[in-house]
Amino acid sequence: MSHKNQLQKLELTWIGKGEEPALEPRILIENPEYSYGDLNSENMLIHGDNLLALKALEQDYTGKIKCIYIDPPYNTGSAFEHYDDGIEHSLWLCLIRDRLKILNKLLAENGSIWISIDDNEFHYLKVLMDEIFGRNNFIANNVWQKIHSTKNDAKYLSVNHEYVLVYAKNYEKLILNLLPRSEEMDSRYKNPDNDPRGPWQSGDLVANEERTNGYYDVISPSGNIFNVPKGKHWVYAEDRMKQMILENRIWFGVKGDAFPRKKRFLSEVQEGRKGNTWWESKEVGHNQEAKREVKALNPKDIFGTPKPERLIERVLSLATNLGDLVLDSFLGSGTTAAVAHKMGRRWIGVELGEHAKTHCVPRLKQVVDGEQGGISKAVNWQGGGGFKFYTLAPSLLKQDKFGNWVISGEYNADMLAAAMAKQEGFKYQPHASIYWKQGQSSEQDFIFTTTHFLTVEALESIKEDMQAGETLLICCKSFQKECKDKYSNITIKKIPQMLLGRCEFGKEDYSLNIINMPANEQDSTDLTEEQSFRDEKVSVQEMLDKRKKEKKKRNDAPSLFD
């Protein structure tokens, strides 16, 4: 067993842990008004609560995401124009944990997750990641130089860095790519003897420890005799050294009389370089560069906390290859999607705020059209591709004026069929000619959802159409009592009774964007009652009390039939 697998498990405990919400699995609806480019594109921009969106992706994308990059709110207490960043510590942990648990499911076995964070929550996030992803799957903590000059107005120390925390889904299966060699690295290779094999640089031929067959004389072309000091040895055995001299792989200086060194040819070194954990701003960009990039794309409404495209390029260069699927569930201004698109990766981006439309859509349209900002020139981006814009369907059930749960009137027949398929774990794919085959969970197991009253005659007609070995689940609002248990291979359930108690219906927002209270009492008295209510900070205890009530409601509700 490896050392990593023997590491002791450590878990954080905080108020609210263990009270995770029972999420409703929603369907996604394309809004063609905001989709752009290639109509066959698999790229997805999802506008909606990111926790519900992740739940919506769970069925189809579990184990399929090669790389996840997220830049969640840092819980700094600083308010930004496009979202509010600063919530009670325990609540931040609750909300981020809910998301990480689903992200872990979505990640491929050979995939990795990269999280931007700063010192405010980094150490807690590290322990939380150990718990969810496994301490044995920790890869590295990269330090990003976000500011390239000292801030002399800092109260104590100028904080010039943030972190990018990295975990694998499976430590043994993760393979990170080499980074491209830099011009600086290649410039160290010269060709003073015009060797036809091209530029080279010299390397040491002497090792520190003594070896019996590593101590012998080496004669240079000028006749000088060289040997190693006592206690050391030549790297190569004598026969190998003679062969390398014949092949002109040993350098004795311009005059042929210098101490021998090995020639290392640029053409023979590995094509890239290992990544390291110190990410300098000159290589991956900095905050000011990021702001210039988004300002060039949207000068009238500049996103407050962007990341530079080169930072995301570093992540995707290490973690992905062409065609791999990338997910960012805190998309912000759209940087991850833009970079993934330019690098030939498929992508899914989720953003709750209106800037999904005001920032992400315009930016990604420009990318498709071939904009030349950010990394475009470095990767020779010429435009192309496209994306589809999706919104989360409304909650499937809502309460009527009497407090009864009913199917939302916003659902048409197709939406209801798709939603019920997702609820029951079926893949929604209506058959071209057989109306009751709306989805299937296996080759012979199907689901059919109807808003019509199900009669015995209708049931018999379906039964006659079924093949040997096929099974069917029928979801309907009501049915003739004689239908129940009439056929062993057909199960009938009533909507909405079959859904009650499963999850939280009617909730649209699980966001991290909790608004801070006014700075002092005087500010508070100036607010109207409506504003005060809207801006009230949600406490951890309030959140827990609400979740407990909802959980009790679900447990007390009927789960199958009236």
UniProtKB/TrEMBL annotation:
Its EC number is 2.1.1.72. Transmembrane segments: none annotated. Signal peptide: none annotated. It catalyses: a 2'-deoxyadenosine in DNA + S-adenosyl-L-methionine = an N(6)-methyl-2'-deoxyadenosine in DNA + S-adenosyl-L-homocysteine + H(+). InterPro entries: DNA_methylase_N4/N6, DNA_methylase_N6_adenine_CS, N4/N6-MTase_EcoPI_Mod-like, RM_Methyltransferase, SAM-dependent_MTases_sf. Keywords: Methyltransferase, S-adenosyl-L-methionine, Transferase. One of its GO terms (biological process) is methylation. Residues 65-357 form the DNA methylase N-4/N-6 domain. The keyword Chloroplast does not apply. The keyword 4Fe-4S does not apply. It is an enzyme of class 2 (transferase). Belongs to the N(4)/N(6)-methyltransferase family. This is site-specific DNA-methyltransferase (adenine-specific). It comes from Arcicella rigui. The lineage of its organism: Bacteria, Pseudomonadati, Bacteroidota, Cytophagia, Cytophagales.
